[in-house]
Amino acid sequence: MFTHKKVKRNTDYTLTLYLNQYWQDERLAFSSEFYELTLSGEFAAKIWVPDTFFANDKNSFLHDVTEKNKMVRLSSDGRIKYGMRFTTTLACMMDLHYYPLDSQNCTLEIESYGYTVEDVVMFWMKEAVVGVDKAELSQFTILNFETTDREEALASGTYQRLSLSFELKRNVGYFIFQTYLPCILIVMLSWVSFWINHEATSARVALGITTVLTMTTISTGVRSSLPRISYVKAIDIYLVMCFVFVFAALLEYAAVNYTYWGATRAKMKAKKLKESKATTDVAATNEEIIELQDVRVSPIPYLRRRNKATYSSDAHFPPSFRRTRSYYSQGFNRKSLEQRSTLERPKKPYVLNSLKRGASVLRASIPKIKDINKIDKIARIAFPLSFLIFNSIYWCFYVF
């Protein structure tokens, strides 16, 4: 067997090869001065030939330019060499967990379709496979190959099966330039926003959204060229993590913007409170306390004396408190008013109060940042360092 070309994609691979089969039929022995005769492929229809087929074949065709690529060589002792050239697409159960840093093992299964081991015994000749070391593939490197034979028990009988196994290593150069390097550059581009002024909202938001959309486009293009499998591949992990870094850079500006405007509102509120307090102090200083006296004349001397006693008892209070005290002397007190206002005030739901308390605790636990640029300064170091650590772990795990 001469392996000519091998191309592989997804979970199938296409193989163009020369298949030569040898057997001996004593009925075809002849006496002649010619030891071997070369006949056309049409002669194969007049003699017995094995019904060989590929067990893992999906689609095959025999080359027919300019004639059908078949030939028969007959020796004088009845030995026959039956050769043909064809291209076949074979199934390969690939494990893509490490894709595109993976290695695969694909096989070519040759078997007799109708003849069992009682009729035909198939085996590999010495140096049966040649030309594999000269094969050049665009995405793979053939590390090794081996031939095996075994008996395969099926429902219709036991058949002899010959297997040719290829150990393939995927070339990662294509994916470095098409996927990994663009992703790295996009992630690094998202870090530029850390050096842009936080007040340039449109510039930082536009940069963040552009990098996120670019990562989405790259991820979609990579997944479109792969079979739809349920498990996670190595390239999926890298794309997702790059997307997380890009999206985190966008969220970092959201945190900066929120902190900036929160601090601005707090400063404005404190300024207004200070101005209001100053205004109140000035008003209290200039206030003229007017003493209001209610002079009541009663024709009854007892009542007149009681009023005098009341006013005399208020003499030691400041004028500003006299009205208040006389008000409370009528049977009202502060405690009763507070209790009444508490009873009349509608109670807030328990869940709402719990959420407000939790938000207050969370707000109190967040450290107060006085310098808004400190967040960007931390991000300039934290993001590249985290991305470097991730790449170190990723490549060490999948390559070594």
From TrEMBL:
Pfam family, one: Neur_chan_LBD
Gene3D superfamilies membership: Neurotransmitter-gated ion-channel ligand-binding domain (2.70.170.10), Neurotransmitter-gated ion-channel transmembrane domain (1.20.58.390)
Domain Neurotransmitter-gated ion-channel transmembrane residue range list: 179-395
GO cellular component: chloride channel complex; postsynaptic membrane
Subcellular localization(s) per the UniProt record: Postsynaptic cell membrane
GO molecular function, one term: extracellular ligand-gated monoatomic ion channel activity
Database matches in PROSITE patterns: NEUROTR_ION_CHANNEL
Main location, first listed in the record: membrane
Record carries keyword Transmembrane helix: yes
Source species, domain of life: Eukaryota
Membrane topology type: Multi-pass membrane protein
Domain named Neurotransmitter-gated ion-channel ligand-binding: residues: 9-171
Entry's transmembrane regions: 172-196, 237-261, 378-397
Keywords: Cell membrane, Chloride, Chloride channel, Disulfide bond, Glycoprotein, Ion channel, Ion transport, Ligand-gated ion channel, Membrane, Postsynaptic cell membrane, Receptor, Signal, Synapse, Transmembrane, Transmembrane helix, Transport
PANTHER family: NEUROTRANSMITTER GATED ION CHANNEL (PTHR18945)
Protein family: Belongs to the ligand-gated ion channel (TC 1.A.9) family. Gamma-aminobutyric acid receptor (TC 1.A.9.5) subfamily.
Name of the protein this chain belongs to: Gamma-aminobutyric acid receptor subunit beta-like
Species of origin: Caerostris darwini
